[in-house]
């Protein structure tokens, strides 16, 4: 396991900006307002001689109620698992009583502490650092995380405090795990589902909609298989999104869908299927991602409500009838085994490698069973097929007049290939390619005998007229 370094401090002191600078990424959401980060966000810093895990935490506001209390609980968990604590303060705000209270809590942990005085750009460095010398810490470093100044010195100060017996570990998404993005509307139960799969309170769960803002990647192993679960922010209708932070959260949600291999769209069974759910499903199909539809909060509904919900799903999800519908309860854990099996099947179907000979034989059977409609009196010819990629499975079909093939016939071929190769839970892309005409651009030159024959025919036709 890699050693862990936790970034702790008040809200809006630049912890997420420092996290992005250390990990050389833009994973953490950054905004000029307090309280953006709430959950623990993990990344790997590789800028020094040895890599280590960096944990971005929410700001400690000193309020022990509501979301602030849940955020403080996540910060305490990060402090417990870290080997080194980086106490981030704001040089522009100066030393505040709240900073002293946070430092006292960090000292009780008995772990090494480094004070990182952020936002020192444009200030008199000596005066700014003098104010924080009362901390009495051996390492108090100035930096500007926004401009990546002082971060090499911070890494150099952290490395000697880390244990030497740590071994390299792959970051989430870099190994052979299945990347699963869990998306849905706000308050659909995404964080509750991940906590239930982990068996611990890894993510903040609240009845307040929009609790999750950053996409959080969580590795988990279940039934001998490894997964990387990506908890995303809830996506509302565009007309209801008015905050800049929420807009960036939605963008990161869509980016997480593109980076995943399987997308689980979580639907609240008690609120029926909304148009926003359909938009998310459509975006997953456009990205070519394997799809599983999980209907949450199934418990507590009577037989009539369940029947109406199932009918609505069958009616409105006909365009993705190949996706598996799983009915679960993230709170009580029912249906989770079936959900994970559906994810594995969808991932297998999306990444299966098909052979050219099998695809061509299947194409011939489909063509013999039902030929495409005529185009100007001629039927398009489909000659052979070969694979064009995975995730999603792409089938390249070569033939003639394929540009005029109707969309209905394309859907017929998709269904035929899906049934033949049992491709459940993944979209299929078919790429038609016309064969080149070997006589294109060439002109037939007549011989002298052919020219004389043609002239005789022209004279005969004129004489008959």
UniProtKB/TrEMBL annotation:
Protein name: GTPase Der
SUPFAM superfamilies in UniProt: P-loop containing nucleoside triphosphate hydrolases (SSF52540)
Source species, domain of life: Bacteria
Binding, GTP 2: 184-191, 231-235, 296-299
Subunit structure as annotated in this protein's UniProt entry: Associates with the 50S ribosomal subunit.
Matching Pfam families: KH_dom-like (PF14714), MMR_HSR1 (PF01926)
GO MF annotation terms: GTP binding; ribosome binding
Domain EngA-type G: 3-166, 178-351
General function of this protein: GTPase that plays an essential role in the late steps of ribosome biogenesis.
Keyword annotations from UniProtKB, A to Z: GTP-binding, Nucleotide-binding, Repeat, Ribosome biogenesis
Native organism taxonomy: Bacteria, Pseudomonadati, Pseudomonadota, Gammaproteobacteria, Lysobacterales
Residues annotated for GTP 1 binding in this entry: 9-16, 56-60, 118-121
Protein family according to the UniProt entry: Belongs to the TRAFAC class TrmE-Era-EngA-EngB-Septin-like GTPase superfamily. EngA (Der) GTPase family.
């Amino acid at each position: 396991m890699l050693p862990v370094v936790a970034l702790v401090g008040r809200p809006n002191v630049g912890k997420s900006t420092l996290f992005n600078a250390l990990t050389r990424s833009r994973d953490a959401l950054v905004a000029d307002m307090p309280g953006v980060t709430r959950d623990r966000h993990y990344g790997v810093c590789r800028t020094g001689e040895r890599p280590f895990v960096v944990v971005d935490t929410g700001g400690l506001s000193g309020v022990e109620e509501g979301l602030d209390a849940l955020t403080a609980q996540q910060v305490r968990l990060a402090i417990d698992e870290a080997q080194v604590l980086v106490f981030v303060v704001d040089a522009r705000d100066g030393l505040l009583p709240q900073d002293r209270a946070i430092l006292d809590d960090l000292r009780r942990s008995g772990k090494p502490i480094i004070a990182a005085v952020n936002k020192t750009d444009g200030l008199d460095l000596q005066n700014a650092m003098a104010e924080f010398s009362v901390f009495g810490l051996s390492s108090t470093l100035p930096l500007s995380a926004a401009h990546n100044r002082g971060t090499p010195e911070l890494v150099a100060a952290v490395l000697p405090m880390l244990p030497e017996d740590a071994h390299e570990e792959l970051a989430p998404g870099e190994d052979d795990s299945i990347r699963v993005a869990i998306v849905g509307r706000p308050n659909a139960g995404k964080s509750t589902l991940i906590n239930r799969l982990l068996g611990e309170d890894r993510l903040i769960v609240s009845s307040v909609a929009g609790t999750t803002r950053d996409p959080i990647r969580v590795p988990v192993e279940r039934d001998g298989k490894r997964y990387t679960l990506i908890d995303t922010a809830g996506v509302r209708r565009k007309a209801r999104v008015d905050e800049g932070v929420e807009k960036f959260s939605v963008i990161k949600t869509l980016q997480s869908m593109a980076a995943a291999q399987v997308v689980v769209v979580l639907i609240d069974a008690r609120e029926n299927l909304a148009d926003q759910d359909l938009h998310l499903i459509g975006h997953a199909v456009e990205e070519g991602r394997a799809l599983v539809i999980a209907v949450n909060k199934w418990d507590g509904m009577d037989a009539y409500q369940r029947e109406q919900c199932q009918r609505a799903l069958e009616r409105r999800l006909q365009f993705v009838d190949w996706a598996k519908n799983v009915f679960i309860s993230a709170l009580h854990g029912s249906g989770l085994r079936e959900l994970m099996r559906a994810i594995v099947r969808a991932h297998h179907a999306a990444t299966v490698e098909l052979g050219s000979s099998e695809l061509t034989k299947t194409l011939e059977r489909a063509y013999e069973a039902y030929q495409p409609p005529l185009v100007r009196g001629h039927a398009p010819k489909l000659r052979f097929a070969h694979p064009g990629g995975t995730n999603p499975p792409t089938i390249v079909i070569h033939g003639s007049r394929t540009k005029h093939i109707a969309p209905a016939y394309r859907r017929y071929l998709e269904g035929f290939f899906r049934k033949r190769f049992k491709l459940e839970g993944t979209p299929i892309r078919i790429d038609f390619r016309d064969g080149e005409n070997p006589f294109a651009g060439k002109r037939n030159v007549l011989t002298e005998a052919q020219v004389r024959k043609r002239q005789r025919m022209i004279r005969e036709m004129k004489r008959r007229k």
